[in-house]
Backbone:
């Protein structure tokens, strides 16, 4: 991250603002990713990202592409804030007198950041996936009535995030919101281990001077490259996580008891290529998301907001 010292509140604001902007820009692609990853052999509705988005607009309208966006926009602020601030925290405590971190220590800092963020990421993704996939299940009911089993955990036509939350808490307690926690850790920890060191080293290559910060466009490009690389690398685990967290599925679609059961059934019924479902969608989502995050972070939006607030209060 940057060498300049930034206060914790500013880091939290930077992460939150970056997350809000990024999610708003790329959420429709994320919806396509979820639906492509969830569809299994015998119940395929979409052939590609563009086909998914076109069919979504036709059947659900333009705002159908933003199903579940409210959950993301609400929780992405603490999630991204925790991720970026935690990485800076671990980097600071692993460094000696401001010296450059070794690759191993950079990876340890990323590991710590990924571990911290799942506190928010797991329930956020749990709710988001149900809302995003509801349109696919509804389309299956219309086009393939035999493909959807009634009596699933979520039977309401257009569930809201609050309805889902209340139902999960009532039926399974807090553990219901943290279904797929293990898979989320298996995705987010390796992602952060890859992303943060790669970004830091790419960003350092673009620095004008030995101690000066890199230009904002270098931070953006570095964030995009590092984000897309890490996203594709962990996509197999993202497929597993998405399948495990989906509550409603078709009668011809497999259900899973855990990570190993999910891996075994996907390999047996769909083949290794299924683990790459939605990989290019995920790269298209993560690249600008983290590129924007790093630009906002390095432009110091949080410091600007904090410096402006006291003036408004006087």
Residues:
């Amino acid at each position: 991250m940057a060498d300049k010292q930034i206060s914790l509140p500013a880091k939290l604001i930077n992460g939150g603002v970056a997350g809000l902007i990024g999610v708003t820009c790329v959420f429709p692609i994320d919806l396509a990713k979820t639906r492509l990853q969830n569809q299994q052999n015998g119940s395929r509705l979409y052939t590609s990202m563009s086909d998914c988005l076109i069919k979504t607009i036709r059947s659900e309208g333009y705002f159908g592409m933003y199903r579940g966006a409210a959950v993301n926009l609400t929780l992405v602020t603490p999630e991204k804030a925790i991720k970026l601030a935690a990485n800076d925290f671990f980097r600071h405590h692993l460094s000696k007198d401001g010296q450059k971190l070794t690759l191993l220590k950079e990876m340890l800092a990323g590991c710590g950041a990924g571990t911290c963020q799942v506190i928010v990421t797991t329930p956020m993704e749990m709710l988001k996936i149900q809302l995003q996939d509801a349109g696919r299940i509804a389309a299956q009911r219309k086009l393939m009535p035999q493909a959807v089993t009634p009596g699933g955990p979520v039977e309401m036509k257009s569930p809201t995030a609050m309805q889902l939350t209340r139902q999960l808490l009532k039926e399974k307690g807090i553990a219901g919101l943290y279904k797929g926690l293990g898979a989320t850790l298996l995705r987010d920890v390796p992602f952060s281990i890859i992303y943060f060191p790669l970004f830091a080293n790419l960003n350092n290559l673009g620095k004008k001077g030995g101690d000066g910060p890199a230009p904002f466009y270098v931070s953006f490009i570095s964030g995009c490259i590092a984000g897309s690389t890490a996203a594709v690398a962990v996509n197999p685990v993202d497929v597993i996580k998405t399948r495990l967290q989906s509550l409603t599925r078709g009668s011809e679609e497999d259900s899973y008891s855990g990570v190993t059961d999910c891996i075994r059934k996907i390999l047996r019924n769909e083949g290794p290529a299924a683990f790459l479902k939605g990989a290019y969608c995920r790269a298209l989502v993560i690249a600008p998301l983290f590129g924007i995050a790093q630009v906002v972070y390095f432009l110091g939006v949080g410091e600007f907001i904090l410096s402006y607030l006291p003036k408004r209060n006087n």
User: Anything to note?
Assistant: Residues 150-156 have pLDDT under 50 and may be disordered. The radius of gyration is 20 Å.
